[in-house]
Design a protein that fits this description.
Layout (H helix, E strand, L loop, with lengths): L10 H28 L1
């Protein structure tokens, strides 16, 4: 089991926030690409 160096009480919440931000960026980027490709 590997424990991250930044492991603390709020690590799960922080990871969830980062995951949510990445999902939003990827979704926006994908939507933008589809819009450009469809012209």
């Amino acid at each position: 089991m590997v424990i991250p160096l930044t492991h603390h009480k709020n690590s799960g919440y922080t990871e969830l926030k980062v995951f949510g931000v990445w999902c939003s960026i990827i979704l926006l980027f994908t939507a933008f690409l589809i819009g450009v490709l469809k012209g």
